[in-house]
Amino acid sequence: MKQPARYSRSIDWITVGLYACMVGLGLLNVYAASYSAEVPFSRVFAADWSGLMDYNWFKQLIWIGASVLLIGVLLVVDYKAYDTFAYVLYGGMIVLLLVTLVIARPIAGSRSWLELGPIRLQPAEFAKFTTALAASRFMAGINLRQQAFQQQLVLAGLTLLPPVLIIASNETGQALVFGAFLLAYFREGMSPLILLVLAAAGAVLILSLLVPKLWLVGIFTLILVLVFVFNTKVLRHHLPLAISVWAIVLGMVFGVDFFYNNVLQNHQRKRIEVLLNPSADPLGVGWNVTQSKIAIGSGGLTGKGFLEGTQTRFDFVPEQSTDFIFCTVGEEWGWLGTMTLTILFMALLLRIIYVAERQKSVFGRTYGYCVASIIFFHFVVNVGMTIGLAPVVGIPLPFFSYGGSSLWSFTILLFILLAIDAYRKQDLVR
Question: Where are the transmembrane segments (predicted)?
Answer without folding.
Answer: 12-37, 57-77, 84-108, 164-186, 193-209, 215-232, 239-260, 333-354, 366-393, 399-420
